[in-house]
Each structure stands twice: as C-alpha cells, then as structure tokens.
Amino acid sequence: MDYKKIQEVVGYKYKNEDLLKEALTHRSYLNENHTWHLPHNERIEFLGDAVLELIVTEELFNRFSDQSEGWMTSIRASLVNTVMLASVGARLNLEEYILMSQGEKRDNSRAKESILANTMEALIGSMYLDGGYETARKFIKKNIIINLEKIIQDKSYIDPKSLLQEKVQSIHKVTPHYQVLADEGPDHEKVFTVGVYFGERLVAQGKGPSKQEGETVAAKMALELIDSGQDKV
Predict the structure, then answer these.
(1) Residue 173 counted as domain residue
(2) Is 49 a residue of the active site?
C-alpha cells in the first residue's frame, strides 16, 4: 500500500501514519489478516461523522445568517449523506486504498457505496485526531462544502419524500407510504430495499444502507416516473 500517494490525494501529510491506516481498515480486512496490528475504522468513523456535521453546520450558520433552521438542516443533509460522501470518495479514488476482504472487493452492490462513505468519515476523524480541527475543516471545505452552490442551484436539497407526497396528493389524492421489501448483508452493513406505494400499487423501489435512505431513493425514482409521464394510474 502506497500511503504516501493517498496522503498526496487527500492533501495532508500525517504525523502519525497509523491513524491513516486505521481509517482505511474495513472490518472485513481483519477476518483475513489476523496479524494486522490496528483496529477497524468504525470508532474513528463515529468521530469523523460528528466532526463533519459540526464543520458543515458552522459553515452554513456563518454563511447564511438570513436562512431558517429547517433550510440549513436540509442543505446539511444533502452535503453529508451517503450518496454525497461516496461520490467524493470515488472522485478521490479512495476505494483503491481501503483495506477490505476479497469478498468485499468483489461486491458491486450498494454496500460498496456505504463502505466508501463510511471510510470518508473515518478519514475525516483521523485528520481531526492527527492535525486538529483546522486540518479537518480544510479537507471538508475543499472536498465536500465545494458542492454547496450546486446543491442550492439544482434544489437537490429539497427532501424527495416531501416533494413526492405533495405531488401524489395533488395528482392521485393519496399519501404515498413505504415498505421494506428486503434487507441483505451483515448487521453492520445492511442494504435495505424499500418500495414506495400509491395506495396498494407499488410504484418504485430504492436501496440504501438504512431504511430512511432506501425510502429517499425510492421517492426519487417515483418522482422521475411522475416527471417523465411514466406513472400511469
């Protein structure tokens, strides 16, 4: 593993390289590499999640003094969700550096997206521990907050479930509801398949690492069907 290269990619040189290695260690790697001297990254991911939310919240609070709490909450959710973090991780080619089992490497499901997003949070946690708040803030601003203007311009921060409910109640006079159709994978990396129904009719399905994200994806798919005229009663 070329740890010098990944440090160039993220734009930060670690004083304690073990923190970087821990951030890149997926739980599954330990099952096949019993002599690995570091823990998996879930604890440091927990820290990184909190650091990310604080820094994004601070940025929004300082930049948008005239906006409501609800608006800022929606924007923040768009910046820190699994899809956004995984896309940033993919752009950084982070998957090349993650230590995981051969089975996880072969897996092309939504679980891979979850691994990328979780590793991004772990990376942020490791930077915070190694270089402090300002180091983490610079990384987040350069790689995540940079997407803020596009989110606002595209209005992608609007909750798809709320938008779908508004449209469906107007068009079909019913309230959409959601049902988990399947859940796969181990407890720490579940992938949920969720269906959205208009009355008794299954309209669209979505997958995600949580029921909530599965519902969001299903709502987006249903909105696409409505907007394209493909949703017919």
Answers:
(1) yes
(2) yes
Whether residue 82 has pLDDT greater than 70: yes
Output the six-digit token pair for 44: 């440091």
Count how many residues are written for the chain: 233
- Ligand-binding annotation for 45, yes or no, is yes
Classify burial at 108, counting beta carbons within 10 Å of its beta carbon; exposed 0-12, middle 13-18, buried 19 or more.
exposed
Q: Check residue 232 and give its pLDDT.
A: 58
Specify whether 150 is located in the same domain as 165: no
Write down the pLDDT at residue 108: 64
**Domain-located, residue 123:** yes
CB neighbourhood size of 91 (10 A):
10
The answer to whether 189 is a known ligand-binding residue is no
Write down the catalytic residue from 49, 113, 213, 231: 49
Choosing from 22, 104, 113, 121, the catalytic residue is 121
Same domain, 167 and 148: no
The predicted structure's pLDDT at residue 94:
94
Task: Decide if 22 is catalytic.
Answer: no
Which of 104, 123, 154 is a domain's end point? 154
pLDDT single digits (tens) 187-204: 777 899 999 999 999 999
26 lies in the same domain as 138: yes
The response to whether 224 counts as a known ligand-binding position is no
Number of domains in the chain: 2
Region of poorest pLDDT, from 12-16, 18-22, 133-137, 152-156: 152-156
Question: Are the beta carbons of 23 and 126 closer than 8 angstroms?
Answer: yes
